[in-house]
Amino acid sequence: MAGWSATRFSSLRHRRWPVGWLVLPAALLSACAQAPSSPPAPSWPPEAAPAVVACPDGVPAGARCWRGTDSARAPYLIVMPERWSGVLVVHAHGGPFLGAPTDARANEDIKRWAITVREGHAWAGSVFRQGGFAVTTAAEDTERVRRIFNEHVAKPRRTLLHGQSWGAMVATRAAELYPKSWEGMLLSSGVVAGTATYDFRLDLRALYQHLCNNHPRPDEPAYPLSSGLPTDSKLTGADVTARAQECLGLRTPAAQRTAEQQQKIKTIVDVIRIPESSIQGHLNWGTFTLRDVVQKSGGSPFGNVGVRYAGSSDDAALNARILRFAPDAEARRRFVADVEHSGRFAMPVLSTHGISDSTVFVEGSDTLRQRMQAAGNGGRLVQTYVQSGEHSYLGDATYPPLFEALLNWVEKGEKPSPQGIHQRCLQRQASAPAECRFVPDYVPKPLATRVPVR
After folding, report:
1. Which residue of 240, 276, 320, 454 lies most exposed, with the fewest beta carbons within 10 A?
2. Does the bond joining 96 to the residue before it have cis omega, within 30 degrees of 0?
């Protein structure tokens, strides 16, 4: 990496490199892509009892709340409804949140997921001990808050695990690390395709730099885009937004953009296959989240060697000029070991995803299906899809029939179907059936149709 920092992108852009100069041996890449073995189970020290506290805004009336900080210094919140079903739902939140863990994160989570408590289920959520991309330790924190509930609050008759967005990555790790802790798992808008979920953000950074050449600028120190941003960079989110505005005019009404800006936006939309509205968000993730991953992995696990980009006005010119980066093999191994799952889930798994979700692509759900089938667990998975472009929350009508179906599967052995879940939603929402947006017959395409394989 030191060599990169001393070289300007402007000179690299025109240099002729020997064919295959960055190609890693196929056997090495294959080994890197293998699912990890489970790390040794941590020793579990005694946990202090949580404190009874006033419930944060958004919690249903009559509920009781507890807070605490566990032995690994992860804050957590527990909510018990006025009339408890006996079911505990342990929630793994989305993100990753790059700042220090605070109670505010738990407050935000329970306000969004108050539907769980309104259904009569207890809710427990860890904020995780550290900000950023640390999946295995977040899975440990998720197991720890389950133990705290059991030891200090109540003994549930059933325990479900709910992973939302990036929290689905945490939940799938927790499900494989602690299979006896959970009886069913719900994954909503989930990151369930492992490391491949993040590859396109490097693709976006490389394409953006090819089109705009201002992140970094020619007069700034160069660095490999696969690292997101240098560790010591002072660049802020506002700075990245300003640079995107300068090049693309994302905050300018479409009719007022220059023809060049319109063409660049079209190229990004067509090549990366994301809507214009999500360019800024993914550019930020491809900057700051990638930097966080690199810092934790000791190098960049991401690369775009051999990727063939398509959809531009001149694909041959694009592929000849776009910058290429090879992943660091050891960093890749560490990243895979931290985040990947193998589909070895000893419980029923129910998932839901917005079909037009531009934050986490619905095509990742096909990877979950493939991995569970390969592990012999295909019969333990039911997947549902919602006609929606939302990511963080798919509406109050969506989750109650999912929780109900998952519990019936766990307790009665009644495996649900997407059609049955949709019908149950319509029954529960008889006065507002339009709020039920399940699409029972939808089948996602493989992720490779959306994100090029590398």
Report:
1. 320
2. yes
Distance CA 148, CA 136 (A): 19
Q: What is the pLDDT of residues 378-434, one digit of tens each?
A: 999 999 999 999 999 999 999 999 999 999 999 999 999 999 999 999 999 999 999
Q: Give the tokens for residue 326.
A: 């090879």
- CA-angle at 333, arms to 349 and 308, nearest 5°: 85
- In this structure, which amino acid lies at residue 291? R
Of 336, 368, 389, the last residue of a domain is 336
**Rounded CA gap, 397 and 203, in Å?**
36
Contacts of 315 (CB under 8 A, 6+ apart): 308, 309
Token pair in block for residue 33: 């892509």
Question: Measured between alpha carbons, how far is 134 from 236 in angstroms, rounded to an integer?
Answer: 22
Residues 79/148, Cβ–Cβ less than 8 Å: no
Rounded alpha-carbon distances, angstroms, from residue 388 to 154, 353, 385, 433:
37, 8, 9, 15
Q: What is the pLDDT of residues 47-70, one digit of tens each?
A: 999 999 999 999 999 999 999 999
Answer yes or no: is 30 within a domain: no
Find, among 357, 53, 11, the residue nearest to 218 by Cα. 11
The predicted pLDDT at position 22 comes to 35
Same domain, 358 and 420: yes
223 lies in the same domain as 295: yes
In a domain, 152, yes or no: yes
Residue 167, both tokens: 């929290």
| Percent of the chain surpassing pLDDT 90 | 87
